[in-house]
Amino acid sequence: MAEIASDIISRMDADLEKDDIHRRKRIYFPTWASEVSDIHGMKHVMGRGSIFRRLVWLVVLLGSTSVFGIQSIHTFQNYLQFHHITKLDILFEPNADMPALTICNLNKYRSSAITLEDIIHVGFHMGIVDENHTLIYPHLYTDEFVEKLGTVDWDTVEEDENYNMTDFTIRTGHQLEDLIQRCQWKEEECAEDDFVLSLTHLGACYTFNKYIDADGFSSHNATIAGAANGLQLILDIEEIEYTPTNDLDAGAMDAGVKIMLHRPTEPPYIKELGFAIAPGLHTFVQMRHEKITSEPYPYTDCEKDGDIEYFDHYSLQACRIECETKIVDKYCGCRLPEQPGNARVCNPAETHECAHIKLVEAIEGLLPDEECNCRSPCNVENYPTMLSTSRLRAGFLKRLFEDSHNRTEDYIRQNIAVVTIYYEALNYEEIEQIPEMSFTMLLATMGGNMGLFLGGSLLTVIQILEYCFDETVGSFKSEREVNEKTTTGPVIVLPANTKDTTNGTREEYRARWRFDNDGVDSGHM
Known about the structure:
Number of helices: 15
Shape: elongated
Structural class: alpha+beta
Strand content: 15-25%
Helix content: 25-40%
Number of strands: 15
Distance between the termini: 13 Å
C-alpha cells in the first residue's frame, strides 16, 4: 500500500513540477517589472493598484516610449547624415611666416637667346617658321632675329630627335638678374640665395622663400604689418625679347609678369593661379593668411593623406602637376621639362605634337575620368590678396637707374614694374569644420531623451539586457528539464533580485492530501 501511494505521489510531483516551471515562466516578467525594473511607470502598471489607475499608467508609459522611439530615430538619422558646422576664429600671429612667391615673365622664350640651332630644331614645332622655313609673323620679330633666320641653310641641316628641351627652356628663359632689377626685404637688400629657379608652365620662373629641405630652410617672417616690412621688387619684363610662338603656355597677347603666393612646401601652378602685374605701375599687394581645416570622409570629400609620388607634401597643385605628368608619360612616353619624375624629357616634336595636345584634351575633359582625380587636402593654407596700383614716375626711375642702366622714360613706362607685397595685419583666419553631432553628442542626446521620457539611463539598458539573458537561459534550462522529466526537483535559473515563488508548492500539495514525508496518509494512521 505504501509503495502504491509513493508511486502516485511521485507522478503527482512530476506533473506538479512541470506546472510549476511553466507557471513560473508566466509570472516572471510581471515580477521583474514590478520589483526589479528602474523604468519609471513600469511598477505602477504591474503593481497592485486599481485597474483604471494601471490603465492610465499603461497609456502614459506607451506614449512616452513612442515619443522616445521617434526622437531616437530622428537623432540617428541626423547623426548618419554627417552634417558639419564651420567655426571661424581670428588669431594673432606675432611672427607671421611669409608664403613662397613665384614670379614668371608672361613670355616664355627670349628672342635674343634663341640660336640658329634652336630655330632648326624647335622653330617649326613652336610655330616660328612654317614648312617652308619662313617666318609666320615676320612683323612681330626684330630685324636682328629676321637676319639671323636668313643665314640658315635649311638644305644641310637635320633635326635632332634628342634635342635637350630642358636646357633650351632654361637658357632662353628670362634670367633672374635681368628680370629682378632690385629686391628688398624689410627695406634691406635680398640675399643671393633668396630666389630659386623653378620650371613651370611659363618656363624659367623664380621662387622666393621656397622650401628645399627641413635642414636648409629658414622661412622669412614678418613681425610688423605694413609695406615697410614686406617684399619690394623692381622688375623688368624685357618686352623687346618677347617671342611669339604657338606654345601652349606662352601667350603673345599680354606683357607683364605673373605672381603666385603659395605655401613654401607646395609647387607653383602658375598657369591657372596667381595674379598679373603690368609694367608702368606700382602694384601694392595686401595679403591675409587663412588656415582651413576640413573634416575627412564621410563629412567631406577632402584628401586626408594624399598619395603622391613626386612631391613630399600633398596639395591640390602637386596632385594636378603629377596628374599631368602621368598623362604625358602614358600617351607620349616622355615628360615636359617642368614636370617631375625620371622619365625621358620630350623632344620638340613630342612636346608640341603630343604632350600639349593631350594636356588640352585633359583640360577639356576628353580623356577618361580616371586619368585625374585630385581632391582638395583637408588642411589648406591660402593667402587671399587685395591689389591696388599707382602710376610710376618714369623720370624718377630714370634717375634711379642712371648709374647702372641706361633706361629711357619710354622704356620704363613699357617695361618696368614695381610690386610691394606685405601682410595687411599680423593675424590669420582659422576656418575649421566641426561635426554637427559627434558620437559623444549622440550618446548624450539619447541618454537625455531616455531620462526625460522613461526615467532611464545606460544602466537601465544593461538591466534590460540582463533580463533578456536570464529569461533566455532560464527558459532553455526549464524546457530541458521538462523533456528529461526529472524527479529530483526543478532547477530554475532566476534573474537577480527576484523572489522564488515556487518553493513550498510541493509541501502545500502534500498537506492538502495529508501525506507525510514517507508518502503515508497521516490522516488514516
